[in-house]
Specification:
213 residues; alpha/beta; two-stranded antiparallel ribbon; disordered C terminus
Length: 213
């Protein structure tokens, strides 16, 4: 079974998003996210590397070749999109170069800790589905790990290693709001508890750290 066996177009309830991670090791993922409930179906991955005995090995791809391949595959799912934009780190040095090959890098201001937490919620809630032809992302999800102790800021940050495709996936999920079921499972914040206990009107605040739809 290959990606070409997938029947297109997908139902209109799915939004198709791209995420990218740039550097020596580059990758991008194409994800279809359904609405209410929000579920993520990872359709394709575009790493410029592979794993050999658990170690990273670069493929024989130049940056233009990698970019054109990712754009060509993404166009199959988004034929009417005027331009292809992928969520990526704001400090990437590849924005101008990749734009020449039809891939626009859209800066994602959501920080790593929040991206990791949102992605972990989706995975733990069983809201992530991986296409059977994926090879790199399933491996990186399997080996992803967190330290036993919090850092000086009290955060349990994911250990940064062998996660370039996973980074791209986390960029995508961080741009989608959490489903009602996921929000219900989230621990009550200090502010919410104070408002509830003291009977003050509940504030209506947008979930800004997850970004717009």
């Amino acid at each position: 079974m290959t990606p070409d066996d997938l029947r297109l177009p997908l139902p209109p309830s799915y939004a198709i998003l791209l995420g990218a991670d740039t550097g020596t090791f580059m990758s991008a993922v194409l994800v279809a996210v359904s609405s209410d409930p929000y579920e993520a179906l990872v359709l394709e991955e575009f790493p410029n590397y592979r794993y050999v005995s658990g170690e990273l090995e670069l493929l024989d791809l130049s940056v233009p070749e990698w970019a054109r391949r990712a754009v060509e595959r993404a166009r199959r799912y988004l034929p009417d999109r005027a331009r292809l934009a992928a969520w990526a780190d704001p400090n990437t040095q590849f924005r101008a170069e990749l734009a020449h090959y039809g891939l626009m890098l859209q800066p994602n201001p959501i920080g790593l800790v929040t991206r990791v937490e949102v992605a972990r919620e989706y995975v733990q809630a069983g809201r992530v589905w991986l296409a059977p032809w994926l090879q790199v992302l399933p491996y990186e999800l399997e080996i992803a790990c967190w330290p036993d102790e919090a850092n000086s800021a009290g955060r349990y940050e994911r250990v940064k290693r062998q996660d370039h495709t996973l980074d791209a996936f986390e960029h995508v999920l961080s741009r989608r709001p959490r489903s009602r079921r996921l929000r219900a499972a989230t621990a009550e914040s200090f502010l919410d508890r104070m408002l509830r206990e003291h009977g003050r009107p509940r504030l209506s605040v947008a979930d800004t750290h997850l970004g717009p739809l």
